[in-house]
Amino acid sequence: MLRTGMIKQSSAGIYSWLPLGFKVMKKIEKIVREEQNKIGAQELLMPTIQSAEIWKESGRYDDYGEEMLRIKDRQNREMLYGPTNEEQVTEIFRSSVKSYKSLPQLLYHIQWKFRDEIRPRFGVMRCREFYMKDAYSFDVTDEEALFSYNKFFLSYLRTFKRLNLTAIPMAADTGPIGGELSHEFVILAETGESKIYSDKRIFDIDINEHSNDDNSIKELRDKFDKFYAVTDEKFNKENFDKKVEKENQLHAKGIEVGHIFYFGDKYSKPLKCSVDLQDGKKVDVKMGSYGIGVSRLVGAIIEAKFNNNIMKWPQSVTPFDVAIITSIKKGDSENLNKCEKIYRFLKESKIDVLFDDTEDNLSAKFKKFDLIGIPYQIILGSKTTDDKFEFKELNGKTEILTIEEIKNKLLKIRNLN
Ligand code: 5CA
Predict the structure, then answer these.
(1) CA geometry: angle at 288 spanning 286 and 293, to 5°?
(2) Under a CB-based contact definition with an 8 Å cutoff, are residues 271 and 261 in contact?
(3) How far is the CA of 257 from the centre of ligand 1 (A)?
(4) Sheet with strand 78-81: strands edge to edge
(5) Which residue's CA is minimally distant from atom 17 of ligand 1?
(6) How far is residue 51's CA from residue 216's CA, in Å, rounded to a whole number?
(7) What is the atom index within ligand 1 of the atom nearest the CA of 135?
(8) Is 130's C-beta closer than 6 angstroms to any atom of ligand 1?
(9) How many CA atoms lie within 13 A of 195 on its CB side?
(10) Is the peptide bond before 120 cis (omega within 30 degrees of 0)?
(11) How far is ligand 1, taken at its centre, from the CA of residue 77, in Å?
């Protein structure tokens, strides 16, 4: 990411997102948002800076420890840079929603977080300032709350699939968020920090067979629950050997890209977030929280898709649809003019095209584009005629096509995705 100019480090664990990296992150964010909206979650935006008061009410102000960045304002009031938003969203909820009739509610935002990690490492994978989608569910009963949990479970599987990733839900520990029930969504990668133990057959589950319908979502959860799949904190060798035959056992490393929690009234009780029931009694709302590491995903997709020095973005998040590559020499504007014509033509057809008009030599350009990972290239080189060009799929086959044919192909590829 540093070499392609996607990001630049600003200080330990804090990065600027440069145009190329920012474009990819925004595309990931859009997919995450669309899948949240599809299950009926509503977007809001909470601030990054929070008051310490609500954290004192929940009891987490002291528990959270050194990972929390604490700040004092000019009035000497204690503030903090939010590492997560359970308290803040509960505070918003308790002051606006009073009746069981308004439940269930699913709320989310996509906002920067800060955690003062002791050892920020692997670039955007474990950094101090990162971009996260965090959602919160509010229900009256445990049973309804588990249904909300399952909705997010399905929506996460769909989100990661659209990003061309196979993320496996693993039973996990709840850490500082708390609660009893939790799944980490982990993608397999050699460089990952999470150790996972699972039944290989879990990869065969087809999520396309399931709709947003209550029963269908429940069936999907049950299918996953049948297979052993845990992170190392929950691992027990005896259980693993008992439940999974040797040939189906998978021990691997992975990257946690999402994490969901159910914690009932852990926050609503101390923060007095209750609703009135039909019979006049009050009940503390039952809550869950659901996170996706949007900025981490940029690095995670690279880890999952990088092979033999070639990186190829999934169509859904590629920074550009196609790159125009040719050799440009000082004083010779023939190639430059041709490429600019192609560039304008594709732009008019709403194709997101990048033209490398630098004077680097061709082999350096090919190396650069292997790294940047734009999935298609238009090459003006030895095989080019006046009206036909090389159209190459990165790490794939080359065809000789007219610009009209190239345009139609690119539009078709985009529609398929
Ligand atoms: N409040 C809950 C759910 S919204 C929560 O904060 N969960 S979390 O701690 O598991 O974080 C959610 C996701 O954010 C993780 O799955 C991971 O993808 C991402 N994330 C967490 N810490 C970092 C970090 N230091 N750097 C980059 N991404 C991170």
Answers:
(1) 165
(2) no
(3) 8
(4) 49-51, 78-81, 69-72
(5) 293
(6) 41
(7) 4
(8) yes
(9) 6
(10) no
(11) 27
Query: How far, in Å, from the CA of 81 to the mean position of ligand 1?
Result: 15
Q: Is the CB of 152 under 6 A from ligand 1?
A: no
User: Cβ contacts of residue 77 below 8 Å, gap of 6+?
Assistant: 51, 52
Q: What is the CA radius of gyration of the chain?
A: 25
- Answer for the pair 180, 263: CB distance below 8 angstroms, yes or no: yes
Distance 194 CA to ligand 1 centre (A): 13
Give me the amino acid identity at 147. F
Over its length of 417 residues, how does the chain's per-residue pLDDT go in tens digits? 999 999 999 999 999 999 999 999 999 999 999 999 999 999 999 999 999 999 999 999 999 999 999 999 999 999 999 999 999 999 999 999 999 999 999 999 999 999 999 999 999 999 999 999 999 999 999 999 999 999 999 999 999 999 999 999 999 888 888 888 999 999 999 889 889 999 999 999 999 888 888 889 999 999 999 999 999 989 999 999 999 999 999 999 999 999 999 999 999 999 999 999 999 999 999 999 999 999 999 999 999 999 888 999 999 999 999 999 999 888 888 889 999 999 999 999 999 999 999 999 999 999 999 999 999 999 998 888 889 999 999 999 999 999 999 999 999 998 876
Burial of 99 (0-12, 13-18, 19+ CB in 10 A): exposed
The answer to whether 300 and 288 are in contact (CB under 8 A) is no
Report which protein residue has its CA nearest ligand 1's atom 20. Answer: 293
CB burial of residue 290 (10 Å; 0-12, 13-18, 19+): buried
Q: Which two tokens stand for residue 179?
A: 């609660």
For residue 281, give the nearest of 100, 404, 86 by alpha carbon. Answer: 100
- Is the CB of residue 351 below 6 angstroms from any atom belonging to ligand 1? no
Q: DSSP characters for 296-348? A: HHHHHHHHHHEETTEE---TTT-S-SEEEEE--BTTB-HHHHHHHHHHHHHHH
